[in-house]
Amino acid sequence: MAGLFYGLIDQTREFLHLPDAPVPSVGEYLKREISQHAAGWTEDEETRKLKLAILNSFFNVECCVSGTHSMDLVALAPFGEYTVLPGLDCTFPGGYQGLTNRIMASLPEDVVVFNKPVKTIHWNGSFREASSPGETCPVLVECEDGGCFPAHHVIVTVPLGFLKECLDTFFEPPLPTQKAEAIRKIGFGTNNKIFLEFEEPFWEPDCQFIQVVWEDTSPLQDGASELQHVWFKKLIGFLVLPSFESAHVLCGFIAGLESEFMETLSDEEVLLSLTQVLRRVTGPVCRGSHTSGVLLHHTRGSAVWLEGGRPAHRSVGHPSAAARAPALSPAPSIPSWALPLLCRGRLPPSFL
């Protein structure tokens, strides 16, 4: 099923330079192709349903990768524009601040100005530089306090939400229609990372990823259940993070409306639901107990998805402990052994 799904993902690149895509969205294309493949399956009904459930789990993975609630919201035609940058992922000790500190160290002192909110960026003009008589610059950055900074080039890194809200007033003259339309059509969704810390690992030493497959799901059917009963089914699984000192941590990923619903729950409700999920999907194969001293760390971030594209792609190639689980509803109370600790914070758009 992984070969089928990611083979179809690769096929989406065929529509990159065509004038018309066969269907508007990636989701519609994938479901159309899967439906045709499923019509030729000769296995028994139970096996066919399990195949569809596994494919549905890959849809959830792509929702996290593309930062969207549904792949039906991601346009097919430009989907293949994205390419993975070469090299390994890096983790900076102490966070991304270490990178900016390093860059700042190479700059002369007092060249970075803080607490200067920008009102308008005037571009495509001719502005005089006070420190260099006779020299003109094509860009002028006007601040809210009246200060101005002429420049030959300006790199704008404001958030997408700010661009959408202030597009008509932030640039003078307005941006070209093509760029303005691109900003209006770009969307972004909610992704959450959930870090579960355990006193001892219950997973095997060589396990890198625990993928959850729900038997009663299918990408060819729209689920109509209320979110409070099924939100955790959008979890793509749990990544086993490298052990650090005595910490044993699983990182779960969830996107879309289910991710937003999770943010409305209390620490205890989230912790209990996820602990129950892990109990059900790993109970027969786990080593030791995973019901003691669980700490929950929860961070949120917005990832950008393009009406014509996607921000990232990673194939699922980790050794995994795949497990099947029936439907599960959260219990109303939290047991005494659970010790929740919730840490909320914004993540940058590149969330994986």
Automatic annotation (TrEMBL):
Residues 43-283 form the Amine oxidase domain. Keywords: Cytoplasm, FAD, Flavoprotein, Oxidoreductase. Its main location: cytoplasm. Its cofactor is FAD. Pfam families: Amino_oxidase. It is found in: Cytoplasm. InterPro entries: Amino_oxidase, FAD/NAD-bd_sf, Flavin_monoamine_oxidase. The keyword Oxidoreductase applies. Belongs to the flavin monoamine oxidase family. This is Amine oxidase domain-containing protein. The lineage of its organism: Eukaryota, Metazoa, Chordata, Craniata, Vertebrata.
